[in-house]
């Protein structure tokens, strides 16, 4: 590896760059998690986190990864042998399917090509055919981190309602929360899964469940084994500003500061910034003469762009050159996209100049790797960034 000066460019789609204000907040002295100062922090966060999810209901905060929050969504709402409807939109949708099967659920998995989101017409067809209402839940990844494809949740909710089906709607927002417009309440989502290390601009270590009244009412009769993930003792303790176990105190300091940053910018402006940076990135990719993996412009991700290379090129070689020469990390291709794509993360704490530098590094790396690109691709991105 080459020795580098300056800061490393972390342009993977999570974990993302942690703002200095958040790092300083995390560095505060740890306090007693049974004391009044912590109770004040926890009660403040209990309310302050809700707007990011677009909910007025409860949000459980776990000391966990997003994978833990996946499991919590399942075990608090479902029972052994329940059927769930899931969709192969990418690597992480497939992993969530695998978890559901290991927990004892029966998964109807709709195959996909990893270039498109969930088709709401298929949701409607599957649920309409389920005359006995044996499907207990529909599992959807809102923004598939492995592909840069965003499924349209309101259309999926409408399909469930059109079928007049009681299935729960469980949604993974791990790489969309705080980056892409999301509305738990307005879109009729029953459990929203999130985590800390992407749009919330924190290190890994916090998992989230936003919970509808319907999901909460089902929790007492859900028979999948649970202990650590059980909503009930957490929500009971949260009423008084505490947790039934040791919380991630210093990450909660950071969460408060990150939420403050989002509040200062305004969520609408945060989403617009992400959309603008995504548009600039896609302009660069097309300008280079390369292909965006996502094929439906209505499903373009505001969080990341997956770039598809021809079979004659190794995307991981491109990534290695960019890391060695320019000290920048890009996301690898996952699962069946290994070696075929690289992913540019443009979410979290990011501004125009950071993105411009990122795309400059990508263009130079592609050229050094022997990928034939049109150098005007960078200018196409800068034109988007210059626009008002």
Offer a few descriptive terms.
globular, single chain, 388 residues, 7-stranded mixed β-sheet, alpha/beta
**What is the number of E strands?**
14
DSSP helical segment count: 14
In one word, what is the shape? globular
Strand order of the largest sheet: 2-10-9-8-5-3-4
Secondary structural class: alpha/beta
Oligomer: single chain
The helix/strand series, from N terminus to C terminus, equals: EHHHEHEHEHEEEHEEEHHHHEEHEEHH
**Approximate strand percentage:** 15-25%
Unreliable residue stretches: none
N- to C-terminal distance:
40 Å
Rg calc = 21 Å
Kindly report the average pLDDT value.
Answer: 97
Largest sheet: 7 strands, mixed
Helical coverage, percent range: 40-55%
Outline the structure in words:
With 388 residues, the protein is an alpha/beta fold. Helix content is 41%, strand content 15%. The protein contains 14 helices and 14 strands. The chain has a 7-stranded mixed beta sheet, with helices on both faces. The radius of gyration is 21 Å and the shape is globular. The two termini are 40 Å apart. The mean pLDDT is 97.
Q: What topology does this entry show?
A:
Layout lengths: L8 E3 L8 H7 L9 H13 L1 H4 L5 E5 L2 H10 L7 E5 L3 H12 L3 E5 L9 H10 L5 E7 L1 E2 L4 E2 L2 H10 L5 E5 L18 E5 L10 E6 L1 H6 L12 H8 L10 H17 L1 H22 L2 E2 L11 E5 L6 H12 L1 E3 L10 E5 L6 H17 L7 H11 L2
Parallel strand pairs: 1-13, 3-4, 3-5, 5-8, 8-9
Antiparallel strand pairs: 2-10, 6-7, 9-10, 11-12, 12-14
């Amino acid at each position: 590896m080459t020795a580098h000066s300056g800061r490393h460019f972390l342009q993977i789609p999570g974990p993302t760059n942690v703002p200095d204000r958040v790092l300083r907040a995390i560095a505060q002295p740890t306090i007693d998690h049974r004391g009044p100062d912590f109770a004040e922090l926890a009660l403040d966060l209990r309310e302050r986190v809700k707007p990011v999810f677009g909910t007025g209901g409860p949000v459980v905060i776990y000391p966990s990864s997003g994978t833990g929050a996946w499991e919590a969504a399942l075990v608090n709402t479902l029972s052994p042998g329940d059927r769930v409807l899931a969709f192969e939109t990418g690597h992480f949708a497939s992993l969530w399917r695998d978890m559901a099967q290991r927990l004892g659920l029966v998964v109807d998995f709709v195959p996909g090509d990893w270039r498109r989101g969930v088709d709401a017409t298929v949701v409607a067809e599957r649920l309409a055919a389920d005359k006995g209402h044996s499907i207990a839940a529909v599992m959807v990844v809102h923004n598939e981190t492995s592909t840069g494809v965003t499924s349209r949740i309101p259309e999926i909710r409408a399909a469930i309602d059109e079928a007049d089906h009681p299935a729960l709607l469980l949604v993974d927002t791990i790489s969309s929360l705080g980056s892409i417009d999301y509305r738990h309440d307005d879109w009729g989502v029953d459990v929203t899964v999130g985590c800390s290390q992407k749009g919330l601009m924190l290190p890994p270590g916090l998992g989230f469940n936003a919970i509808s009244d319907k999901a909460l009412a089902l929790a007492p009769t859900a028979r999948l084994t649970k202990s650590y993930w059980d909503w009930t003792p957490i929500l009971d303790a949260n009423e008084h500003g505490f947790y039934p176990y040791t919380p991630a105190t210093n990450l909660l300091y950071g969460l408060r500061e990150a939420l403050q940053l989002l509040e200062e910018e305004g969520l609408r402006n945060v989403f617009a910034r992400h959309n603008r940076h995504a548009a600039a990135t896609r302009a660069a990719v097309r300008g280079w003469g390369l292909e965006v993996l996502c094929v439906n412009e209505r499903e373009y991700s505001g969080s990341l762009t997956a770039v598809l290379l021809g079979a004659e090129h190794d995307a991981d070689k491109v990534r290695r050159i960019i890391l060695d020469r320019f000290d920048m990390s890009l996301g690898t291709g996952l699962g069946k996209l290994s070696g075929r794509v690289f992913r540019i993360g443009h979410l979290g704490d990011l501004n125009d100049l950071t993105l411009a530098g990122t795309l400059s590094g990508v263009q130079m790396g592609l050229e050094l790797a022997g990928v034939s690109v049109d150098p005007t691709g960078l200018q196409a991105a800068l034109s988007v960034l210059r626009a008002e």
